[in-house]
Every structure is written in structure tokens, then in C-alpha cells.
Amino acid sequence: MSNLHIQQQPTEHAFFRCKLPPRRALYNAVCACLFGLSSGIPMQTQAAEIDGSCLPALIFPVEEKLFNDQNSDERKVEASRLLQPDSNHYRFEGDVVYQQNQLQVKAQSVDYDRNSRQAEFTDGVELQSKDILVSAKNAVLKDQPKGAQLNDTHFQLLPSRAHGSSKKIQYRQEDGQAVLEKTTISTCPIDKQHKTDWFINVDRLTVDQSSRRVIAKDAVFYFKDVPIFYSPYFNYPLDDRASGLLFPQGGSYKSLTQTDPSQYLKVPYYFNIAPNMDDTLTLMPMTQRGLVLDNEFRYMGKHKAIEHSAVINLSFLNDDLTARDGLVSTDSNGDLVYGKKQAERWRGTISARQNWGHGFSSQLQWIEVSDPHFFNDIPVDIALKNKTQTPRFARVDYQSRNFSAYATMFGFLKLQNAPTNYEKRPEVGFNFYQAESWFDFNLSGQAVRFDLEDNPNSDVVGNRYHLNPSLVWSKQKTYGGITATAASQMVKYDLENQPSDSEPTSAVPQFALDAHLVFERTAQIFGESYRQSLIPKIQYLYVPYEDQSSQPIFDTQERSLDFSNLFAMNRFSGNDRVGDDNRVSVALTTQFENAQGQQVADFGIGQMFYFADRKVGVETSPATITDRRSDYYLKAGIGSPQLYISSTLLVDENDGSLQGSSSRFSWQPSPKQQLLISHYRHPQNSSLNDTVSAGGYSQLDQNWQLGGYVEYDLKAERLYETNLGFRYDSCCWAAEFVAERTQLENGLYNDGFQMQFELKGLSSNGNRFKNDLANKFNY
């Protein structure tokens, strides 16, 4: 201001400046200190996005050309008239516009005093920059000491359009403080009655740039003009992430012994410890049981080439119900069995990843609980509420250009009614690959120790050593190709509790010859042009019979249904059995690609023709399979923005009945409607599993959304799970209610519900029902 230069023209340069408080200081920090702004994304903050049609109107038009001006040092003032009452005073009148550093201030009059180095803007003051719009009754800018004061303001943050008002805004540059008095903040549009659905009133808000802190006094949150939360004082950091309360969630949960479900309320508090470290503590009072303390700690770190991250969950409850009645399970008849009385119940989990550099990496996924019934009773991890077991492991990997190796400890945490499964303690393996000009060589191997937890010294345990060399010759052209494969499956055991040979050994060679042709043409479908490929494929596979009945079954089973099984080298998964085969597999597939080269459809049919009986089975004394032809394998796949189908069917060649199914269907005509269906029937034994799942959601009107999910066993005629969800979603707040019924044991069901509430612009819990639906169908 000391160098204000006036020329005899209505448009001149004025050398005064105003420094605005940062965007976060005016809005994000205040909101975050009340309710928190952290998300479920590790080490980041995710602000809730607002639909463009829901954005509040601008308090006055934005001049975009102002933000495109890169001349940051030029300052200018425009006015209709320039008056100079004396040598120390200047007065600009009529549509005054001041611009500097992508900052613009408009007013009807500006008075500038050279002695006090002060400029006063009056009558329709409008200030805009890249981050904020402010209208004020008047504004005073000072050069000595540097600062500003704006009275009776209405401000709006860009681009979120969060808006508010303040009786007075004072800024002092020497101490880097902005003080807002009688401030109101909201992200909601203003309705016809000039009201918003929610807003926050703060009596006094101090933003301190030097200490990077925000101090709010007497803050009250209003919803529908009703005060629902008050805080007399908050001291809060200006950094990106924010400590504070997150949105609570409520619901009900019922275990085996409860005739009435327990009601619960989750109240999480987020701690921003460091840029690479945070913690969320959740208090969850449950009726009948007591207070659950649930804590999640997250960490990320990097030191030179070493990167590592970890998530640690701890939960604790002094359970009044099990202290009184004892832990409960069901027997083989489905009757309740009461066990020991136990008050202290807990769980601990750790999920960690490390990249050590030089090709080494590691993973850890471990979980422990106080008792097998913990997740059935306590809703800290809904995904495990009906699980009988969950995997846990520790693994180290090494990867180089053509060599990889690993070592792992793999097992299961046994939960309620857990089956008996072998655990790998440990497993080490390697793979070596070498590509030459006319063949590819691959060598893989592993050594595994199979153990059983609490083994009564009657089940077979021991070591298995496996080696699999293979040699592949391939010749590929655009019109087709041929591939020859020679491999060997060699296995050796060192067993305990085995009545016969304790060191069974086998070496089974495998030979396969594959060939295919590719025919292409342009096809017109519904007026659209597609490139169609017709691909016939044939494979001859020969695997001689080798008696493997003395070998145990540790991890081997029949393959799940997939079209690629037509050309698999082994009809079993795992390494305990190699199926004998002398067969030819044929298949005919057709694919469609659009003009962009994206595959939009894929159909296929195939069958296997056997020249010999199959003697090797999973059981030690299997029945010989004498069929000369397999059932038909059918596949269909359609992928488009609206429709997705992925289906593999096994159809009886004699009567056309369905023998196996692995099908998924998704139809989404718009972002507001979706239908999902899946069906799975075990291809070898339909009595094991014949389950259909269906779910979807639909936007009923502008605000209401309805969703549902059902899982049903067609063979057992049993309903596993049913969910019904309602969601109200407006421009600035949302509420969701999900009712669910889940089968427990022997016809008993858990009837419960969950509720959540969120305010747009503060933070987002997301659409829980839609997220759970996607997880159930693995979309």
C-alpha cells in the first residue's frame, strides 16, 4: 500500500493485499473436529462426494477467466470514478473491481488512506479466489499491521460449494490467525424457506496457521433445526486427516441361546497419529452382554527399499451373558450344549505385508480368539458370524527373472462346529522357468509337512515331497496352433500312523497334444458390426495308470466345474492323486469382439471321449469309471455395460438333465438398478451343494432405494440367508436400514438389523447394502 500510484485515468493500480484463510480452516477442520473425515482407505482421507445436481447454488457468479490469469504479480483496480479529497485520501466509486494474484474484490466504493495504509470496501462487497467466495457488508484491509476484517459475511468454498455465514472475520498476518465469530457452516442446498437440512453453529472459531491448529468454542450441530450435538471446545489440527468422532452405526445380533437379539450401537473415534499411522477405537455397548471395546490400528512405512504395512485389530468384552450361562454350541442332533462359564472374551488379528527388496516379500494373516463362538456372538466381523473356520498363514516369497520360491505356514482358526482339516507346517516350494527357441522348460517342486491340530495319534500325518518337470513345444500362427506337452508328477511320502507302507512313492508321466484353428468373419447383429471368431480345439491326453491307493489324501479333491477342465492335465486338484487318462477332448467356441476390440460374447460346447476305464479316484478303493463319453460342457459369457453372464454347465448327454452348474448373472440397466443371480451345483455330487443366490436393488424414486438378497439350498430346501434393505438418500444426508435373517444351527436363525446415518460433505459410510451385495457375489 505504500506505493499506490494514481494516474489521471478511471482504471488504476492499487498496491494492497488480502490473504484469505485456507479452505480447510473455514470448513473441513470444523466439520472434522465434530464428526471426523477419515475413511476406510488406509492412510488417506476420503471426502464424501456430492452429486452435481445436489450442489448448493453459487452465492454469486464465478468469473472463470480470473483463475486462468497466470500474471500473479500484476495488481489493478477499475472504477467508474476516481476522487481525491486531499493528498492522503483516494476514493473509487461505481463498480469497483480490484484484482491481484487470482484474487478479485468487487464493491461500489473503496476508500484508501495513505497515512493509515488502510482500504475500506463498502456496498455490495464480493470477494472471490480459486478456493472461496465471500460476500460482505463491508471489508477493511490494513497494511500496517497487515490484516483484514470482513463484517456480516456469507462465504462459500470451491469446488465443494460448502457454504456458511459469519458475523465477523478477522485476519492478522503477523500471528497468522483468522478469527470467525458467530459462524454457521453447511453443505446442503438452501430450500425455498431459506433453510438447510443440517448446519453447524460455532460461537468463535480461531484458525492458527503458525501452530496449524483450529480452536472451536461452543459448537452445536443442528439437524432439521433440532440441536443434536454440542461441544464446548475443540482443539484440532489443520492437516489432511482428522481426529474425531465418526458416524455411529446401530443394529441387533442374536446368538444360539438368545430368544431376543442383543441391541448394539457402534461409536467409533478416529485418532490421526501421524501421516503413516492412525487408530480407530470403537465403543460398542450390547444389551445383555456389556461393553465391547474394538480397536483398529493401521501403519505404513518405508525405509530405503523396504516397504511394509500392517492392520491390527483387538476386541475385548467382559460378557455378562456367557459369564452367567456359559459358552454354547450344538451337538450332532442340533441340541444346545452349554460349556464352561467365561466372562473375558477377546479377538486379535494382524494383517501385514512387507517388500524387503532384492526380490523378497512376505505376508502375515493371523487371527486368535478367546473361544470358537466369539464371532457367532459378537458383531465385530459380520463376515465371520457363520463361518466354521477361517484361514491364517505366514508366507515369505522370493522372485527373480525366471526363478521363484516360497515358504509358508498355513492353517485354520477353528470356530464353531469346525471341520477337521490338514494344516501345512511348513510348506516350501520353488519354480524354475526357461524359454528356449523351440521349447519351454519348467520345473516346480514343493515339500510339505501335513499336521492336524490336536491329533489323537490315529490320523495319518507326515511329509510329502513333490516334483513336477515339464517340457512344452509350441507353434502358433494367426490361423491356429499346435502344442505338445510332456510332464511328470513325482511324489514321495514320509508318513506317521500309517498301517502299511509309510513311504509310498509314485511317478506318473503325462503326455498331451493340443491343436486349434481360428476362423474369422465380420458379423452384423442388431445393426452393429462385430468380428466373430470360430475356434475348434482338440486335445489328446495320455496318462498311464499308477496304483496310488497307499497314498493319503491331504489336499486333493475333484476339480470344481470349469470349461477349462476339458483340457486339464489332471482331473484332480492337489498333488496326492494323478488321474489315469486315455482320452480326446474336443470343443467348439465362438467369440465376438466389437469395433474397439473388446470381447462382448463367448460361447462354447465340449465333450471328452475315453479310450480306457479310469481307475484312480480320490478314495483309496474307488469304483472304476467305465463311461466312454463325458457329459456335455457348455459355457456362455456376455459382457456389456448393462448385462454380464458367466456360466458353465454340465449337462447329461443322455437325458439333458443338469448335472453341475457354476453361473453368474448381472443385469444393470442403470446405475440405480441392478439384479444379481448365481447358481452353483457340485458337478460330482449334487447333494453336497445346490445353492442359488439372488439379490438386487432399485431406486424407487428420487430419494428411496430398496434392496434384497436371498440364498437358498435347492437340495436341502433350506433358506441360508435373507436381507432386506431400505435407504433414504437426499442431497445432503442419508439413512440406511438393513434387516437380515441368517441360519445358525438346526433351523435356528439370527434375526437382526443394522442402521447407519451419514451427512454428505462430512464423511461417508457408503451404501452398506450395495457393498455387501457386491461382496457376496464377488463383484
Automatic annotation (TrEMBL):
> What residue stretches are annotated with the Organic solvent tolerance-like N-terminal domain?
86-211
Pfam families from the UniProt entry: LptD, LptD_N
Describe the function of this protein: Together with LptE, is involved in the assembly of lipopolysaccharide (LPS) at the surface of the outer membrane.
* Protein name as it appears in the record: LPS-assembly protein LptD
Protein's gene: lptD
Q: Which PANTHER family match?
A: LPS-ASSEMBLY PROTEIN, LPS-ASSEMBLY PROTEIN LPTD
- The residue ranges of the LptD C-terminal domain are 345-703
Where's it mainly located? membrane
Q: Where in the cell is it found?
A: Cell outer membrane
Source organism: Thiomicrorhabdus heinhorstiae
> Which UniProt keywords are listed?
Cell outer membrane, Membrane, Signal
Q: Which family does it belong to?
A: Belongs to the LptD family.
Q: Which InterPro entries match?
A: LipoPS_assembly_LptD (IPR020889), LptD (IPR050218), LptD_C (IPR007543), OstA-like_N (IPR005653)
Q: How does it assemble?
A: Component of the lipopolysaccharide transport and assembly complex. Interacts with LptE and LptA.
